[in-house]
Design goal:
Blueprint (H helix, E strand, L loop, with lengths): L9 E5 L4 H12 L3 E6 L15 H13 L4 E5 L5 H15 L4 E4 L14 H29 L3 E6 L12 H21 L4 E8 L11 H8 L20 H12 L10 E4 L7
Parallel strand pairs: 1-2, 1-4, 2-3, 4-5, 5-6, 6-7
Helix pairs in contact: 1-2, 1-7, 3-4, 4-5
GO molecular function: oxidoreductase activity
Organism: Mycobacterium dioxanotrophicus
Keywords: NAD, Oxidoreductase
Length: 273
């Protein structure tokens, strides 16, 4: 049976060029939503151990959404660009007439002990992973309130936003921050029927999740490996982004109407091990 649970709705997805962001765009479109997709499509943090997304990656996301029969407005915008996000939201509302779903997915991860990373490495992570979500919220919320349709905001935190791990304290700080932002925003937006929840993946099969520079950290500090345990469920490989998208589509729709200010684990029980 075809899922049309999001028919007539419009979803705004950051970090949409590849990985989780692309998967979320495609799955939301498959459920009937039109898509607003943004990604920096350029290097964003010098310390990252994996290649950045490209304009071609974003173009492929567009093609995949259109193959689902949905409309898409895509733009190369860095989430740190608050004005760029506001302009994109204004253009999206002009084109689609509404905004119902937001997936604040864009984020980066790099490695190093906290007292050894540079000030720039710290700032890049906080600016993208936390301030980027703040910028997204400031851009989308007025349009969602004005539309008067309620809606769902989904922030992508991390298992490391609940259970800190060594070697990426700056990343943990940013993702713990996303949880606080999410919970406070949920209380503030409740009167407008807008729900706000965070998702907490662990070990996902994306360019970020496959960053081999982590191996050097564990080689240099082998006792850190004990903090990266498998989950309670069989864990033979990294989690497919599409499995995370199952949760995104559910949170975006009416089936999760009772849920707000919740932290949804997507980590096979890792947080309980």
């Amino acid at each position: 049976m075809t899922d049309t649970s999001l028919a007539g709705r419009v979803a705004y997805v950051t970090g949409a060029a590849r990985g989780q962001g692309r998967s979320h765009c495609v799955r939301l479109a498959r459920a009937g939503a039109d898509i607003v997709a943004l990604d920096a499509c350029a290097p964003v943090a010098e310390a990252n151990g994996y290649a950045p997304a490209t304009p071609d990656d974003l173009a492929e996301t567009v093609a995949l959404v259109e193959a689902e029969g949905r409309k898409v407005l895509a733009r190369e915008v860095d989430v740190r660009d608050a004005d760029g996000q506001r302009r994109l939201v204004a253009d999206a509302v002009e084109q689609f007439g509404r905004l119902d779903i937001v997936v604040a997915n864009a984020g980066v991860l790099n490695w190093g002990r906290l007292w050894e990373i540079s000030a720039q490495q710290w700032q890049d992570i906080l600016d993208i992973n936390l301030t980027g979500v703040f910028n997204t919220v400031q851009a989308v919320v007025p349009a969602m309130i004005a539309a008067g349709n309620g809606g769902s905001i989904i922030t992508v935190s991390s298992a490391a936003g609940v259970k800190a791990v060594p070697g990426c304290a700056h990343y943990c700080a940013s993702k713990f921050g996303v949880v606080g932002l999410t919970n406070a925003l949920a209380v503030e937006l409740g009167e407008f029927g807008i729900r706000v929840n965070s998702i907490h993946p662990y070990g996902t099969d994306t360019p970020m999740g496959n960053d081999v520079s982590m191996y050097q950290l564990l080689q240099d500090h082998p006792h850190y490996i004990h903090s990266f345990s498998p989950g309670a469920l069989p864990t033979e490989s990294l989690i497919a982004p599409d499995d995370i998208s199952d949760i995104v589509v559910w949170l975006a729709g009416d089936a999760s109407s009772l849920l707000t200010a919740a932290q949804i684990p997507a980590e096979k029980g890792y947080l309980k091990i």
